[in-house]
Amino acid sequence: MSDVTHEIPERIPVHIVVNGVGHTLDLVPWTTLLDALRDHLALTGTKKGCDHGQCGACTVLIDGRRVNSCLTLAVMKDGAEITTIEGLAKDGTLHPVQQAFIDHDAFQCGYCTPGQICSAAGLLAEGRARDADEIRELMSGNLCRCGAYPNIVAAIQQAMGRP
Amino acid sequence: MNNFQYSRATDVADAIRLLAADPDAKLIAGGTNLIDLMKENVERPSRLIDISRLPLRDIEETADGGLRIGALVPNSDLAYHPLVEQRYPLLAGAILAGASAQLRNMASVGGNLIQRTRCAYFYDTATPCNKREPGSGCSAIDGLNRNHAILGTSASCIATNPSDMSVALAALGALVHIAGPSGQRTIALTDFHRLPEDKPHVDTNLGIGEIIAAVELPKHGFARNYSYLKIRDRLSYAFALVSVAAALELDGNAISEARLALGGVAHKPWRSLEAEAALRGQAATPDHFSRAADLLLHGATARSHNRFKIELARRAIVRTLIQAASATPQSQAHKKIA
Fold this sequence. Notes:
The structure holds 2 protein chains of 2 kinds. By secondary structure, chain A is of the alpha+beta class. Chain A has helices spanning 33-40, 96-103, 113-126, 132-138, 149-159; strands spanning 12-18, 21-27, 59-62, 65-68, 81-83. Chain B is α+β, with helices and mostly antiparallel strands. Among the domains of chain B are: 5-52, Uridine Diphospho-n-acetylenolpyruvylglucosamine Reductase, domain 2, CATH 3.30.43.10; 225-325, Enolase-like, domain 1 (2-Layer Sandwich). Chain B has helices at 12-21, 34-39, 75-79, 82-87, 89-96, 101-106, 109-114, 120-123, 165-172, 273-279, 286-296, 308-325, and strands spanning 5-8, 25-28, 47-50, 59-61, 67-70, 175-180, 183-188, 211-217, 225-231, 242-251, 254-263. In chain B, the strands form 3 sheets. A 5-stranded antiparallel β-sheet of chain B has the order 4-5-8-6-7. In chain B, strands 1-3-2 form a 3-stranded parallel β-sheet, covered by helices on one side. Chain A: This is (2Fe-2S)-binding protein.
């Protein structure tokens, strides 16, 4: 019989700042940022939808850029600043995108909403969308199975200051 | 996802050393394709070598007026770089036609070049696939092959290369700078990807222990007469059924230089020097575009479900050349095809 040994990787200390709070987590290297947020930091606002980068429910901001946290290894983001849906509101005031989603009823079941809002916050920071078509195109990484798209576009237009 | 060891490369030489030392190790940068494939058990690396912090993130002008793009530049940063927008709008458009904003923020230029096919059988570990498991057979040849290749196929594989960026790079005559155990070398983008032949598990001509350091664009960017037209099953965030990169240099209505490359139809971006030569010196008219399309599609072969692609590609080539000639490039946001 062959003697098969499996080298078990050590847990790796990962320091990340999430919504302004620093955390050091000891993680096995295959832990995605999504799982680190949900299972290690109990920040379950970020949703696991497809877990393959196709639906956008897991969208968070890393150092201000929107990314799919399900395709991100937490260990690779040591030192990064991460903003999740839980961290968008400041001093009790909703982020303009959050307020706009409420104003425009831009959701139905709500499962995709944290990802939609984080993605829209990233879109605003990028400054590339100027009209509804460009919003639709640059939000195409966020699926909404309830089909709230018209209201999502309207909400983002409001947040952009272009009603 | 399988268990794996993790190493953070300290410099390019360290990455090459780690990669050459373990044939089952993989480089990781953006991770958008590799992590997905690992979750599907298609890729099972023993070790991931994190190169994301290496200093390969610069976009610099070259001495002869071109642009050198570090392999770790995110796709979005490349597409929105002022010099790319001004001088290489064909490349900017092709990048923005691919993936989603989030994925473009993550994915690197080097990773885009080595991303794997999205053939459903390649992804499905329950089915034979010569690309995933050499010698096991091809499930697509007699299977659901609507999305599959019509050019350059083999009896072993009919998978397509999924990249949009590479199609524009092929048309623009880009170079790929490679670093490896025996030093640096440079090859044309059109020689970077392979046809499947009898080794479809080998996507590219990268050697063992080699990594992509940079992509270089020549000076001529075709910034006036160009278009990238991508035809797909939904208007955004889908892989191409057929895509066309067209770039023309016009002297009045006469074509002095022409570049054409197809995506979604072969194992690599598809160019034909004959098709481009046939356009040079001709008037920019639909008749001449149609003849170039026939030459570019010479030898196209359909399987049971993808016959439509040949005519779709023919019409898309003509349409894209019309857009390029009239300086009305396809918008990647406003989807109406002019």
